[in-house]
Amino acid sequence: MTNQVDAIRDSLCAGAAPAASDSAHAPVGSGPSFAPADARLLELCVALTAEHDREALLSRILDAAMDLAGCDAGTLYLLEDGALHFCRLFTRSQGVRQGGHDDPVELPPVPLEDAYLCGRCARRKERIRVDNVYADDRFDFSGTRRYDEMTGYRTCSMLVLPMENEKGRLIGVLQLINAMDGEGRTAAFDPALEPLLTALASQAAISLAAMQYTDQINTLLDSLVQAFSRAIDERSHYTANHTKTMAAIGDRFLDWLATARPEKAMAPEKRKAFRMAVLLHDAGKLAIPLQVMDKATRLADRLADIEERFRVMGLLDRLAQAQGLLPEADAGARAAEREQALERIRRADRAGFLPDDELAALAAIARRTFTDETGAVRPWLTPEEAQCLSIRKGTLTDGERASMQSHVAVTERILEQITFPEEYADVPAWASAHHEFLNGTGYTHRLSGPDIPREARLLTILDIFEALTAKDRPYKAPMPVEKALSVLEDMAAHGCLDPDLLALFRESRAWEGVL
Q: How many domains does the chain have?
């Protein structure tokens, strides 16, 4: 089997070349002068330029070259990792076509060596023409003859062309086999066609290079977005998986939608932009103080200051008692009162919700005072501490919440500074609308109804769902999925969220396997 594969490979690119002075393999550009390309060449070049699918482009390149040359067979090689890799094979008379995602050419790559016709063409960037491989003693065509014996094919003429882009960089090699005359007989390749075929090969290389550049730019953009997203998440230990989880659930939902509700599916180009919007929606959190982003309790590190203050109050009472200024019974009552107050403060610091009676008791504690060692009257709680303990639900004060909410405006300003390609032009608008509600009660622009794109509506659902069900938030326990969905449905009933989109999300169960 190995010998057969080698024979096929050798037959497609064989030929040990002599000195470069032979006129049959002149360097590209040394051929005769020619008139402007005919309409057929222009048509083919326009078609190559218009093609946006890489696999289709590769097939079209070979087909176009064979059509222009009027030949029976051809091979397209791409230069990768210092060797020529078989990309497309086509023999019209035998109905053989190989290459593409579903039918790769399983042949070993060709080294860039003069022993191989296409290898010499690539290494020296030469155009090589062979009129009859059975009558040409300049090259070793033993591999070609073995291939012909195995397949019954009769190889006669060859034309091998380097594919160079506008910068002279070799992209691949185009090998054409068995030119046909007007009566369908094998003939030599017409030298007058070589400049046209060279131009076509160059245009093909430019089209391929442009597509490669586009892929490279998209890859670069994707990698930068991934790195940026990771930097956002890793800045806060508690939200390290937020965008990653959102993106995973979003991908599963859109996959389900494409299969179960194809009429509602998101177009592929919009899917890429949507995923980027998910990854960048919290870009503004880079500007939010960590003590706000990571605030796990109402008081955060202020609790230690309160505990130290209460300890000092106890020491002052003991000193007053030692000086005979404070009766022992009174000192004991005051100590018990402070301990009871401190315990209430500690409970309130971590409580999920504070009812009215608890808020009133904390406000009373905040109004208490003591006299310090200098004789100054000081409160049991500072105004900032009292404000933190007045939070009914959550851990953020109004000021801290406003700071946290400002991340959306910062996201908008950051993303507006980036020049996104056309297919990603909606990313800033979608990402900065992930806290807008349909009834106009969201932020920061208080958009409503039709002003909020469907993609932004989905992003909002994903953001809230992940926040409710997240297991890594120190300020809240993870909410069971069904309860989280009920919260979202209640928000939809009050006009905040898109009820149709939410119903599809529930049906998809896209969170399974992610949470």
A: 3
